[in-house]
Amino acid sequence: MPRAHTFELTTDTSHFTPLQLQPRDLLSTGFNALSQWLRANWVSFPDLISKHRFSVVILGTSVEWRAPLKFFDGPTLTLTSTLKIQRNGTRAQLDTEVKGATGVAARVGILLCPVEVVELEGLSATPTRVPERLASLLQLDELELDVTPRRVVPDVRAALEKSGKMIGEHKSSFTVHRHHCEVADQWAFFEVAGLVGASREAMALEGVAKQPALQAALGTPLQRFDMELSRPYYWFQPGTVASTAWVLDGRLVIVHRLLSPVPGGEEHGVAVERF
Amino acid sequence: MKFVLSGNLLRFSSFGREVSIDAPTLSDGLSRLCEQCPSLKPVLLDGDGKFRRIHRLFVNGDQVMVDELSAPRGAGDEVQIVTAIAGG
User: Fold this and answer.
1) CA separation for the pair A55, B86 (Å, rounded)
2) Is there a contact between B30 and B69 (Cβ–Cβ < 8 Å)?
3) pLDDT given for residue A240 in this prediction
4) Nearest CB partner across the interface for B83, out of A116, A124, A182
5) Residue A265: pLDDT above 70?
6) What is the ipTM for the molecules in this complex?
7) CA of A56, closest CA in chain B: separation in Å?
8) Sorting pLDDT into bands at 50, 70 and 90, what band is B87?
9) Cβ B8 vs Cβ B84: under 8 Å
10) What does the alpha-carbon distance between residue A108 and residue A149 come to, in Å, rounded to a whole number?
11) Which domains does chain A have, with CATH numbers?
12) Which terminus has fewer CB within 10 Å in chain A: N or C?
């Protein structure tokens, strides 16, 4: 059995919306679960970077909400995580189950790309495989080297293009400041959930009078949140969230493209919210 | 030429976003930039003084490859340095 790490989190009101567990907090807590798993079972995150010159960057995330859970249902969450190395050592997948008083409230997946940290001052890095000296510290059943992680976002976008009906669009701008960032002065991936949520709410408020289906974007719980990231945003970098709302098979789906005017390609990632 | 720095590089330029350098080529410009902002040197250049491949260079919006660093450049060129991946 792959090693699991379990910890309990005492909840506070900020972990929840009136509807459900906050997506940003699930991703943030899921990332902390990665750090806990590393420390318990592999090498602590600080040592991994400073002593082994090895780290991971986030390529994608998924959140699936299961049993409805609200703040007043109970005072704690129990998080259990496993980590697996995939695609010939060039990917790692952390899966975390979040249990509350009503059962499994959410599953959080974080897809990671192993990187070699080239220099410690700026923490600039380059993609790599998990080196043998680190892979040897893992169990055999944590090495799924022939498994390629499934990509959800392109499938959803293709289905929308084929069969969906677009009912709204919106653009909102942001600038990455340090409160959005992590130790390398690049944005922390879990902030995306808040930024795209803000764009979705603005779009829905603007358009709900003409498109009643947009009510779901404000008043019903999210069922799934999937995201793929292709480029980082750094401190002080300006960005745009370009959102489109769709109805597919009677369900509201919001697609958010993360853009910037910095040269090298304007798209930094795509997030999809499904209600 | 004018170097435009952003993101995780700002800490190493005393938070200056633009640094003007008088140099005939990008290669010379990078050397002089690192003289002017010594903290940038280990971040931008490797132990052999070569530009690290983890950063991308854009001149007036067009990406420049490492084998083009010696090409002549004009005084009005704007050079952006963008870090491809940070491993924090």
Assistant:
1) 9
2) yes
3) 96
4) A124
5) no
6) 0.84
7) 6
8) confident
9) no
10) 14
11) 4-144 (3.10.129.10), 153-274 (3.10.129.10)
12) N
